[in-house]
Amino acid sequence: MKQRTVGRSGLKVSHLALGTMTWGIETDLDEAAAQLVAFHDAGGTLVDTAASYGYGEAESMLGNLLADVVPREDLVIATKAGIRRTPEGRFVDASRGALLRQLDTSLRRLQTDHVDLWYVHYVDDTVPFDETLAALDAAVVAGKVRYVGVSNYCGWRLGRAAAWQRAVPGRAPIVANQVRYSLVDRAVEREVVPASLELGVGVFPWSPLGGGVLTGKYRGGMPADSRAAVGHRPDLVSVDEPHAGGIVEAVATAAEGLATSPVAVSLAWLRERPGVVAPVLGARTLGQLTGALASEALELPREIRTALDDVSAPVSGYPEDVH
Questions:
Q1: For 115, phi and psi rounded to 5 degrees?
Q2: Do 301 and 268 meet the contact criterion of CB atoms below 8 Å apart?
Q3: 53 in catalytic set
Q4: Catalytic residue among 53, 119, 147, 218, which?
């Protein structure tokens, strides 16, 4: 698998990332182990997790697998802090104390003395932004974190954070922003991607298949065993939306013509978008992951890439339409 540099930093990662959001909930330890081995065997290095995934179980599972299945030194481990999940709901806390406590907990679960990339998981407007960013500096100075990033930051928030960290020598630069991005959801191209390119920040798309919409499995209706049928899916774009249905059909047509899968086509398109470092694969099963890894061997012809660009083009407005 190809390696890419994260923004303008020295960090290098595989251009696909193994996500662990389902681990400990829909993916058990044996299935997770099979996924990690397959990803490692394919040349993948970047494994993405978070303190809140599986109420902490995802990090614990990964820590156990690092000890027994894949060597820690072969992987780039990314985790996030700032969201706490309980049976009562989700709580956002990006205060310095909360972030650093979660980091210490993450390191214990992961059974490692450092993580390679640490994100602020979500914006917290109840905390001064400079307090949140100071936690990133403290973690780097303490040797617990190598590189830092943010997640779900819009363009102006990313610009403010990156500028603040650059303002004083010794602060940890923001090198990554993890955001929702796919063929059926290109909203980040309006401001987030241009800001990331200008600031030298790498873009890591989560939900790169539109919550499963781009696999084509919803073309004939909602499967009873799908995650969308079981509960609310904020990352799932409705196939009832006219633009989404057209994109799904275009992807399916391209896949048929190339004798490959809609998953491979969707990921091959996304990984070559400007600023994108590595789409985060959120597979529940080994079979799903194997299908996603097949995109590694696919290079889309220019004509197909252009057609997908056109059919999925986001609606623009002011100031883009002012010349």
A1: -115, 150
A2: no
A3: yes
A4: 53
